[in-house]
Write a structure and sequence with these properties.
The complex is a heterodimer of chains A (about 190) and B (about 650).
Chain A lengths: L4 E8 L4 H14 L4 E6 L8 E8 L13 E6 L2 H10 L1 E11 L5 H4 L8 H11 L2 E6 L9 H11 L8 H11 L2 H13 L2
Parallel strand pairs in A: 1-4, 4-5, 5-6
Antiparallel strand pairs in A: 1-3, 2-3
Helix pairs in contact in A: 1-6, 2-4, 5-7, 6-7
Chain B lengths: L3 H6 L4 E6 H12 L3 E4 L6 H8 L9 E4 L3 H13 L4 E6 L2 H9 L11 E7 L13 H7 L3 E2 L4 H17 L3 E7 H4 L1 E7 L4 H7 L20 H21 L4 E3 L21 E6 L2 H11 L7 E5 L1 E3 L3 H9 L3 E5 L5 H12 L5 E3 L13 H11 L30 H12 L5 E3 L25 H12 L10 E6 H17 L5 E6 L16 E2 L2 E2 L5 H7 L5 E5 L3 H13 L4 E6 L3 H10 L7 E4 L9 H6 L4 E3 L5 E3 L19 E4 L4
Parallel strand pairs in B: 2-3, 2-4, 4-5, 5-7, 6-7, 10-11, 10-13, 13-14, 15-16, 16-17, 17-21, 20-21
Antiparallel strand pairs in B: 1-8, 6-12, 9-11, 18-19, 22-25, 23-24
Helix pairs in contact in B: 2-3, 2-7, 4-5, 11-14, 15-19, 16-17
The chains are: A alpha/beta (about 190), B alpha/beta (about 650).
């Protein structure tokens, strides 16, 4: 189990969490690493919280990660970043989150205060975990948030054993033409 | 770009990243399956998506989405009865719908063999319960195999098909949600062209005169006897099957071998496990710092159980833990087996109700094993205390622009305070959540018409002279799936209920599969059976039809219909906007549309948020409402809900 690297990817249904997980799993496979994972998408398109797991390396078996044992958490939304950091991020792990806010109902109804970035930073600090915030709002097409966030993960080298070429090959498995070119640009160069 | 359809037809052996559901289709192709049927339901619809990825002209078998699981089972049975190997797949609770025909299958002589792929849902990820369908295998004398991973799902389906053919019967392949969706590198075998040529076009075996499969009265017994005898033969196969594996553990070395108190040798310990919990257990064993490791008997053949193998495993151990998700199906049989064999092994079954609830995730299995044997499975270090609050909950909800939201909003306005609404299954079930809170009771697909009928009988003369009116919701796919008998009953027996038919033209919840009113089936254009025409044909004469976005008109229609008697229908019609918007985005020249809030007109009444509840509306600290561009599709169904008319066409934001 020591050599396994666990990733928990989360966001709101419709943000492309499954695609992000597929790209990472394929990149790990391109790098010659063992990989397994799982999307949890029962009601994925209905605006609920959704998550995918990716586990890389030998000595991991279940497609699911033990709570509090994700070395890397990738969140595509602010409230889900808070939830995932609390429940899944391992001590000394890394959180990468795309900063957009799709308020959950209790916030919209005024029952809960909106989530603020410092709340997320405080959890990371308590866990001794790294913290990368990807600023939201600058992308023309919200459906490319996942690739922008993947770029942040790839450029910071946060998944051991994977290099940029592996991510590029993975994207080329999954898309083609102009869409591939746009997403490769996001992967390599940021927003 | 790699295409799934090409991969599924690849002639040679290869490895590829795939999910369990997609790998199953490769097993069907390799095995020469000829007929495949289904009704969509999570966790299985991706099997159909994988089938769709093979262009129709290259697809080596025929596939259809039937109108419900019972129909799908019968179509697959009929084809297999005549000699063509068939597969039917559906979700856990679909088996309840199919059960009437399903339980008869082992009585039959099914020349082609058929496999029922069940997607059970421990954890109720997307189901109304987490029923354990292994009970059905025992009840119907049907063999059941269960894989623990995506790779095993592919391999086990091939064994299931071979077994079904060899024994001319039906075999269950039981999967659970995260085996269906598990992703990893899967090794696939090459296609055996010769074997395929031999298995294809194998129909015509069921003969007009010589063949007979009619279990009535005394004729039941030879058929049941054959089913039981087949089960006895299969038990021998199960005992020798490579689907079960015995994995030796490791004894603790040195002083650890002798227990501190008493000085007797440490007990020989073993675990019996099946399915995905095996992978959770492997993780727990490898995470454990303890020196000793128990032996494991991992079962792939669940019914009939390999009793010889299990008896030997029990005899070889002092203590055996049965690690089993959901109900104690294996546990009760193993305990009976130990009793019959006079074995004194200490058998640790479920320690309490918690072990019957939910999925056996790695987190849960670590806790269960630590409870059973803390010396072998020490609990991991506690998580540090974290500052701040828990994240607010985020239940699933209706999409922006959903016609159901607009319809619920209008219906709610039309209802009196004593009236009751009954929910049914589909996206519109989500109407029960705040802020709409429409639909107060749910059993199963199509139940609403008859549950409502019973409520209406009771509501005629409530204590104190009160009366209460009953309305229920029904989706258009469910209408065909399971509502028709209830509707006929309501018409026939004059029940005073109002059906609000939420017609969105598709099976939205499970991924937009076509249904009989769509004018298309899986394989192309088809005769449409419009719901209105079907209702008229059933003798329903009180039908109103309103666009769900026209809230005043819809509320007026519901108000009028509520005051009438007999079986009434209001069709609240609007296409699924998720499907509609996805298609629109793909068209060249697509321009996104949004609404915005006229801040000068807005009185901060928040009706858009607290009554209508479209997720596009965000509330900022000073109480202003903003429109999230990434969510809003500019449908404008919200405009009529604002008392001050502050929602206008615009660019989103403030």
């Amino acid at each position: 189990m020591a050599s396994a690297f666990n990733i928990y990817i989360t966001g709101v249904g419709g943000q492309g969490i499954g695609f992000l997980a597929e790209a990472i799993a394929r990149a790990a496979d391109k790098a010659g690493l063992e990989v397994r994972g799982c999307d949890t998408h029962g009601l994925a398109q209905r605006g609920g919280a959704v998550a995918s797991f990716v586990r890389i390396g030998e000595g991991c078996h279940s497609p699911l990660v033990r709570e509090g044992d994700a070395h890397l958490v990738i969140a595509l939304e602010r409230c889900e970043a808070l939830r995932a950091a609390r429940d899944w991020l391992s001590p000394k792990g890394n959180l990468v989150w795309y900063d957009t806010s799709w308020q959950p109902l209790p916030v919209r109804l005024g029952e809960e205060a909106p989530i603020e970035a410092p709340e997320i930073e405080a959890i990371c600090a308590a866990l001794g975990a790294g913290h990368v915030r990807v600023p939201g709002g600058s992308l023309g097409d919200p459906r490319m948030q996942n690739c922008a966030t993947l770029g942040a993960v790839a450029r910071a080298g946060l998944i051991p054993g994977l290099d940029m070429g592996n991510y590029e090959e993975a994207l080329a498995d999954l898309m083609e033409g102009a869409v591939l070119a746009e997403n490769l640009a996001l992967l390599l160069g940021g927003c | 770009m790699k295409r799934l359809g090409d991969m599924l037809l690849e002639p040679g052996a290869f490895s590829e990243i795939a999910i369990g559901n997609a790998a199953l289709v490769r097993a069907m192709v390799e095995s020469g399956v000829e007929i495949v049927t289904s009704y969509p339901g999570s966790p299985t619809p991706e099997i159909a998506e994988a089938i769709r990825s093979i262009p129709a002209e290259r697809r080596p078998f025929r596939f259809e989405f039937s109108t419900n699981e019972k129909v799908a089972t019968e179509v697959a049975f009929g084809a297999a009865l005549d000699g063509r190997t068939s597969v039917v797949f559906f979700k856990s609770v679909g088996l309840n719908v199919a059960a009437d025909s399903f339980v008869q299958l082992p009585l039959m002589d099914i020349a082609g063999g058929m496999v029922i792929i069940l997607g059970d849902d421990p954890g109720a990820n997307s189901s109304q319960n987490e029923q354990d369908n292994r009970h059905y295998a025992l009840m119907s004398y049907m063999p059941l195999l269960e894989p623990a991973s995506a790779q095993e799902a592919y391999e086990t389906l091939k064994v299931a098909i071979r077994t079904a053919r060899a024994h001319r019967t039906a075999v269950i392949l039981r999967l659970t949600t995260h085996v269906c969706h598990m992703k990893g590198l899967i090794s696939f075998a090459a296609l055996d062209k010769q074997a395929l040529a031999g298995s294809h076009n194998s129909g015509g075996g069921f003969l007009p005169v010589a063949s007979e499969c009619i279990p009535i009265a005394a004729a039941v017994f030879p058929m049941k006897r054959r089913a039981l005898e087949r089960l006895a033969e299969l038990r021998l196969e199960a005992d020798a099957s490579a689907l079960n594996s015995l994995m030796p553990g490791a004894a603790a070395r040195g002083p650890g071998r002798i227990q501190a108190q008493g000085g007797s040798p440490a007990p020989r310990r073993g675990i019996i496990v099946a399915g995905l919990p095996w992978l959770s257990l492997r993780d727990a064993m490898e995470a454990s710092a303890a020196e000793g490791r128990p032996d494991v008997l991992k079962l792939g053949w669940i019914h009939p159980l390999p009793t010889g193998l299990i008896a030997r495993f029990l005899a070889d151990h002092d203590e055996v833990k049965i690690l089993e998700e959901l109900d104690p199906v294996i546990e009760t049989q193993v305990k009976a087996l130990a009793f019959d064999a006079g074995l004194h092994t200490r058998i640790l079954g479920k320690a309490g109700i918690e072990e019957e609830l939910g999925e056996h995730t790695p987190t849960k299995v670590a806790a269960i094993m630590s409870d059973a044997w803390p010396d072998l499975f020490p609990m991991p270090a506690a998580r540090p205390a974290l500052p701040g609050r828990m994240a607010p909950s985020r239940p699933a909800q209706l999409c922006p622009g959903c016609g159901h939201r607009s319809a619920f909003f209008a219906v709610k306005a039309a209802l009196g305070k004593d009236d009751i609404t009954v929910a049914d299954i589909g996206c519109h079930t989500l109407g029960h959540l705040p802020p709409l809170r429409m639909g107060r009771v749910l059993l199963s697909m199509g139940h609403a018409v008859s549950t409502a009928s019973g409520l209406a009988l009771s509501g005629r003369d409530l204590p104190g002279g009160r009366k209460r009116r009953i309305a229920f919701f029904m989706g258009d796919s469910t209408f065909f799936h399971a509502a028709l008998p209830g509707i006929v009953n309501a018409v026939y027996n004059s029940h005073d209920v109002l059906m609000i038919l939420m017609e969105n033209g598709t099976t939205a919840m499970t991924g937009h599969q076509d249904h009989p009113a769509a004018g298309r089936n899986f394989n192309g254009p088809a005769a449409a059976i419009p719901v209105r025409k079907a209702l008229e044909g059933l003798g329903v004469d009180n039908i109103r039809e309103v666009d769900a976005y026209k809230q005043d008109e819809l509320a007026a229609a519901v108000r009028s219909a509520l005051d009438e008697t007999g079986f009434r229908v209001v069709i609240a019609k609007h296409p699924c906007m998720l499907k509609f918007t996805k298609a629109a985005r793909r068209r060249p020249g697509f321009k996104p549309r949004h609404v915005t809030i006229d801040q000068a007109a807005c009185t901060k009444a928040h009706a858009c948020v607290s009554l209508f509840g479209c997720p596009s509306f965000q509330v900022v600290k000073d109480g202003r409402v903003s429109v999230e561009r990434e969510l809003c599709i500019g449908d404008g169904s919200c405009k009529q809900t604002c008392p001050s008319g502050a929602i206008i066409d615009g660019e989103g934001g403030f």
